[in-house]
Known about the structure:
By secondary structure, the protein is mostly helical. 44% of the residues lie in helices and 0% in strands. It has helices spanning 11-19, 23-32, 40-47, 62-71. Residues 4, 6-7, 10, 12-13, 31-32, 36, 39, 41-42, 45, 59 line the site of iron/sulfur cluster.
Amino acid sequence: MSKCDLMHACSFYRRSTEAGTGLGVLYRRAYCDKDWQQCARYSIAKVLGPHQVPQDLYPNMADRARQMISAAPDPASRPFDSADS
Ligand code: SF4
């Protein structure tokens, strides 16, 4: 089973690894090491760009991620696509 391909650039992953214990570690094991396709942070990074991921967003906050994505301007109206940066 593969790990998330964003883990080297993800602040949540780094913080949960540094913490070594707690809720962040549980989420890291459940999402980053396993079901990364279901991660709220991952979906925003892939659709809106990694710089649009809120620092306080947890991997299980799918509803918030969906709201952010649906509220984002149409990609065609953006001056550039931050997902490519
Ligand atoms: S929190 Fe989400 S985006 Fe970050 S490394 Fe884990 S699965 Fe990937």
